[in-house]
Amino acid sequence: MKAKILLFTFAILCIALISGCEKDDFEEVVGVCPIVESTTPLGNALDVPLGQIITATFNEEMDPSSITSTSFTVVGVAPIAGTVTYSDKTASFTPTLPLEENTTYTARITTKAKDLMGNVLQADYVWAFSTGTFLRPVVITTDPINNAIAVKFDKTISATFNMVMNPLTLNSTTFKVSQGANAVAGVITYSGSTVSFVPTNPLAANKVYTVTITNGAKNSLNTAMAVDYIWVFTTDAIPTVTATDPVNNAIDVALNQTVTANFSTIMDASTINATTFTLKQGLTTIPGTVSYTGTTASFNPTNSLIIGTVYTATITNGAKNVAGTQLDSNYVWNFTTILDPAAVVIIDLGTASVFGAFGGNAGITNQGLNTVINNGSIGTTAASTLITGFHDGVAIYTETPLNVGNVTGDIFAAPPAPGTATSFAIAQQGLLDANAAYLSISPASKPGGSDPNAGELGGLTLAPGVYKSASGTFKISNGDLTLDAQGDPNATWIFQTAAGLTVGISGPTGAKSVIMKNGGLAKNVFWYVGSAATINGAGGGTMVGTIIANSGVSFSTPGNANQTVLNGRAISLISSVTMVNTTINVP
Question: pLDDT, tens digit, for every residue of 71-90?
Answer without folding.
Answer: 999 999 999 999 999 999 99
